[in-house]
Amino acid sequence: MKTILITAVLILAATTSLLPAQVITTNNYSLSPATGIPDGSPVGLLQQFTVTGLAGSISNVTVHLDITGGFNGDLYAYLVNPLGQLSVLLNRVGVTGSNPFGYSDSGMNITLDGLSASNIHSYASGGPGTYSLSGTTWAADGRNIDPQSAGSLFGTASTSSNLSIYQNTAPNGLWTFFIADLSSGGGSATLNNIVLSIMTVPEPQIWVMLAGGLAALPLLRRRR
Predict the structure, then answer these.
(1) Is this structure's pTM higher than 0.85?
(2) CA nearest 46: which of 175, 149, 170, 145?
(3) Are the C-beta atoms of 70 and 181 separated by less than 8 Å?
(4) What superfamily does domain 22-203 belong to in CATH?
(5) Helices (H), 83-187
(6) pLDDT tens digits for range 187-220
């Protein structure tokens, strides 16, 4: 028994030393120049990114938005990956049962991150002066409901349609970004830039599974 245990441990140590580091690779896709978002129009703006040549699966996705002007509570935006999965980035931020129009401030320079826990929909819940939309990081809105829904529904809607849905999926193919200003008045917003960042990790190799099997060998022998 001791001989088997020592041999298994030595093989595991040797195999593990050969394993490649799980390096996360970040790939950025940026669209510019600045483009106006039509005021009060569901047509909005549609931008597409073609992603090719990435190996492995997605560990995280971030979206950087640089928007100036307009009325933030009017904005609705989403991202669709090559598999057709939709993540709601913005859904009329600030809309609640007591505030059917959403937040009235203009513009944002933010990063929406699949690993963040601070939801963008309620960024000003602490009142004026308690938040910043310049260089900050938030979770995507994630509320996959009609943006013209009653304000009370925004408080109970699931936030699961966020950027984390892309984790462990394939990155290559056509990604689609859409943004619209759904209510006239409040001025016109401008999309100055959008940066889609896709982080990937290598797929597990056969020797990783081998190492796991060797690690379990002593336990199996012990049970016998």
Answers:
(1) no
(2) 175
(3) yes
(4) Galactose-binding domain-like (2.60.120.260)
(5) 151-156
(6) 899 999 999 999 999 976 543 444 445 454 454 4
